Amino acid sequence: MEIKGICPIAPAVFNDGGEVDYEGYEHCCAELIRRGAQALTLFGIAGEYYKLDRDEEEKLIESTVRVCHENGVPVIVSNTRHSTECAVKWAKHIESSGADCMMVLPPFFLKPGGAALFAHIDAVCSSVRIPVMFQYAPEQTGVAIAPEILADLAKKHQNLAYFKIECKPPGAYISKLMTLLPAGRKIFVGNAGFQMIEGFRRGAAGVMPGPSMPDVYRKIWDALLAGDIETAQKTHDKLNALLNHIRQNVEMIIHFEKEILKRRGFVKSSYCRKPGYVSDPVSDMLFEELFAMIRKEFK
Fold first, then answer.
1. For residue range 122-151, what is the model confidence (pLDDT) as tens digits?
2. For the chain: N or C, fewer Cβ within 10 A?
3. Which positions ≥6 away from 258 have C-beta within 8 Å?
4. Strand ranges for the chain from DSSP E
5. Is the overall model pTM greater than 0.70, yes or no?
């Protein structure tokens, strides 16, 4: 299935005791699709993948593939393994699960560069036939990659079809990469969609935001596709006002995204596994004020 448009990061859904709520997770996924998500992405940075064990990962892959395919949308599963050997094994498991695309996060614990990084991505792409998406998130990983390297990998691997770009600022990088990639490859905007309008104008094919407001992102995206820049910009301004507050670090946006998910009835619990972000009265007050503005855009 073609991957395009609004492709949120699926949240890790826990009960109040911190255990994975698989039934609640599947309900949440179905609700995200109903509210406008055109694909779901499992194990993104905003999905607390680093707080899950192997058994939980396998069960969540199975749940995500089932719910997405029952609802007619593709599923993207991220491969976050740090060693090339483990990443190749995990890539084959992701492919065999029925996922429509595998996203690759470069190994960042030891921050390999140059030939070692190229070899890692090369091996992972070679290990599967399904489409591959590369996630470029230097702020979170500390791994900087020149667009020429990604273009060379895309020329070598036909299945390296998508790129999620969330450097800061992303605009010039997106435009440069677009000129270097083989025809037919697509770029997605990350970073909570903060620069989604600029990304659209530079040729991006979609956005991969957090999970709590797919209908708002879809409204903006559909307005952009229809040429209604005024509606897109006004809605995006409200969204960015909230994002500017809640996305000051990864754990903070996860905390508040889950609070929104709970308020909207997508999940029963807003529990985040520890360690995590701990809010205070001022942050909560600002969140309430900004949330009141954006909730008017909910479907």
1. 999 999 999 999 999 998 888 889 999 999
2. C
3. 11, 212, 267, 270, 271, 272
4. 5-6, 40-42, 75-79, 101-104, 132-136, 160-165, 186-189, 206-207
5. yes
